[in-house]
Amino acid sequence: MTFMPDKETEELSILYANRSAALNHLQQYEDVLEDIRKCISLGYPRHLRYKVFERRARTLLVLKRNQEAISAFQDTITALDEANKFDKEKRQKMRTDSKLMLEILNKGLTLAGNPKDPEPLKRKPPKPKLPGKNNREYPAASDAIQIDYEESRGRFATATRDIKVGEMLLVEKPHSGVLLAEYSKTHCQHCFVKCPILVPCPKCPNVIFCSEKCLEAAQKSYHAYECHIVPLLWKSGCSVTCFIALRMITQNKKEYFTKIVSELDSKSSGVYKTDDYKNIYNLVSHEDKRTKQDFLHRTQMAAFLVKLLEVSGYFEGKPRSKPVDFDEIKSMAVDDKHKNDLALFGGLILKNLQVLQFNAHEVFELQCPRPKPGKNIIKHTGKSVFLAGAVFPTLALFNHSCEPSVVRYFCGPYIIIRAVKNINKGEEVSENYGPIFTTVPKEKRQAELKEQYWFDCNCIPCKDNWPTYQEMTENYMRFK
Ligand SMILES: C[S@@+](CC[C@H](N)C(=O)[O-])C[C@H]1O[C@@H](n2cnc3c(N)ncnc32)[C@H](O)[C@@H]1O
């Protein structure tokens, strides 16, 4: 991929016009209209406009948006007057064809009583919403959830009333999330959806976005600083978790952190908001149980990441304008003027790395093959594909059970939690961190949870030694 021409240039308008022709061949009609809108707003040359206006008119006809097609054909006729470099005969033919289409359309619409055009299709799914009332203290969760605390297991969710199977209990956007490198040219860096047509960053060839809106949101926060350091991060081989630890910083300005740093250790009061870094900072990190080796390892990673932050221009609030390489990082002397920033942000990144170890989630996309035309037997061949890593601060308060009460899935960047069984008032509402009692034997589950999450699982299937499906005999099923 090469660089995009700078924003708002004639060159870019020509690029959009040409892409609209390609999209037309691919029958991606809504995208054709969007590219034509962009190309006109960027000042596409007047003597060429008849081409895109005519393409717009014909696209609108396909979409049965006839009222809009009429004005597009009228624009085509007007634009033909300025198409002085275009073959006179062809110009005349296009004018006649457009006039004919106008006549047909006007007649048809009058006969049909001038019906309204259908609404344009929305490409992105709407933002998911909890159907009932939101919890006042934890707005990402429903009012059926409350967060309790016990010394031995920390915070956990319980039901404030009876919950019916299927009920939606939580909808949350990530506080921070990062797409895996291998999806950076197919999925939106900002909202993780697959891009039918891409909007590249005008300053780097590293990532893409699904819309101008996502590009703008990213450029206004993390991507301004990440633009030229992303390739080095990927090349370093660091995990997506390390990248999230950095993103947790780059998505806010330096001043945001210097303002809140003195309150970070105090317990939060009031509404628990997803975008509040203080809530993330106070998630479980098991700092007191870590070994020296563990700290050394994480501090080395934090030192590398904070150096990247320094070269990105973050401390000065001036994003860097060219790519960075390993040699530049290695040869950098400690700059006295950045000493305090390096200490503060190095410390925050170190904390982020610890928190993420226990609180990050994988973001999945369900991929299903296109159904073959004419075949009406649906085979369930869809698979979940690991796309990104993210931290959802409210969901991170749910504890684990090997027989969970909820299931999670994604809608763009949002995670959605629904009950998979009826849950009684006062019962714990538990998540699952990986091993389920039906398929993984108890010893293996316990070992995995201890190694990854540092706790001894004491859920009912573990306590009562429930058998896996394979261990259940027919008799067992019947007697139970
Ligand atoms: C994602 S956090 C869950 C929320 C956490 N309890 C808190 O206070 O913020 C994961 C951590 O919670 C604790 N935890 C989760 N499930 C548990 C369980 N079933 N029993 C005991 N502790 C558990 C472990 O310390 C684990 O590392």
Verbal overview:
By secondary structure, the protein is of the alpha+beta class. Among the domains are: 102 residues, Alpha Horseshoe (Serine Threonine Protein Phosphatase 5, Tetratricopeptide repeat); 189 residues, no CATH class; 44 residues, no CATH class. The chain is 40% helix and 12% strand. The chain is built from 17 helices and 11 strands. Strands 1-2-11 form a 3-stranded antiparallel sheet, with no helix packed on it. It has a 3-stranded antiparallel sheet with strand order 3-10-9, with no helix packed on it. A hairpin with a 3-residue loop joins strand 1 and strand 2. Helix 1 packs antiparallel against helix 2. The termini are far apart. The mean pLDDT is 91. The site of S-adenosylmethionine has 18 residues, from strand 2 and helix 14.
Task: Please name the defining characteristics of this protein.
480 residues; alpha+beta; Serine Threonine Protein Phosphatase 5, Tetratricopeptide repeat; three-stranded antiparallel sheet; 40% helix; binds S-adenosylmethionine
Computed Rg:
28 Å
Outline: globular
End-to-end Cα distance, whole Å, is 60 Å
Return the average pLDDT rounded to an integer: 91
Structural class by helix and strand composition = alpha+beta
The poorly predicted ranges are none
Number of helices: 17
Q: What small molecules are bound in this structure?
A: S-adenosylmethionine
Tell me about the largest β-sheet.
Answer: 3 strands, antiparallel
Q: Largest beta sheet: what is the strand line-up?
A: 1-2-11
Strand content: 5-15%
Helix content bin: 40-55%
The tally of strands reads 11
Order of helices and strands: HHHHHEEEEEEHHHHHHHHHEEEEEHHH
